[in-house]
Design brief:
This protein is an alpha/beta fold. Helices cover 35% and strands 22% of the residues.
């Protein structure tokens, strides 16, 4: 199952993904994808594979898109993980959902927050001008019909958002397990 994590800038997707990655680090069923981006590593934001535009152009990706003047890619090796039954979690643009759904079994987790919270978070990270923030907030992408979507409201504390996100993730593909592996042991 390919779980596509989407949502507007400032919704807190990276924070939720980082916390979920740490919480599920010992569970072999899950793979959290590191995106390739034509953004320098020192630019801040998520931990990504920094590529130049020339390097990006030579690579094959399972999914690729362009947004906010940058190229983004999801590595093609996710196909092997999906074939083996793993749950692959990737932060993607809403614009690639239809393409992904045409080629992979997908579920979408849409992370969001009220507009005032999104604006404050974007301003707080200090990477964009007020005009850039307004443009990001005005961006409206319709999700395709026929793709299962669960919305996670990330408007309270990080702990609340993480709990909601982990619950959505467990509902997205609760019984998927790589062949030949035992279910994770419960603490106790």
């Amino acid at each position: 199952m390919l779980v596509l994590v989407v949502g507007p800038s400032g919704a807190g997707k990276d924070s939720l993904l980082d916390a979920a990655r740490a919480a599920l680090a010992d569970d072999p069923r899950y793979r959290f994808v590191r995106r390739a981006i034509t953004r320098p590593a020192e630019a801040g934001g998520e931990a990504h594979e920094a590529l130049t535009a020339a390097e990006f152009a030579t690579r094959n990706f399972a999914l690729r898109w362009r947004a906010h003047g940058l190229d983004y890619g999801i590595p093609e090796d996710i196909e092997a993980d999906l074939a083996s039954g793993r749950i692959v979690i990737a932060n993607v643009s809403r614009a690639v959902i239809a393409d992904a759904a045409s080629r992979f079994p997908v579920r979408v987790i849409a992370v969001t927050a009220p507009a005032a919270i999104l604006a404050a978070r974007l301003a707080g990270r200090g990477r964009e001008t007020a005009a850039d923030i307004a443009a990001r907030l005005a961006r409206d992408v319709t999700l395709p019909d026929g793709v299962p979507v669960e919305t996670v409201m990330n408007d309270l504390t990080l702990a609340d958002g993480v709990a909601r996100f982990l619950a959505a993730l467990s509902r997205a593909a609760p019984s998927v397990r790589p062949e030949g592996t035992a279910p994770p042991r419960k603490p106790g």
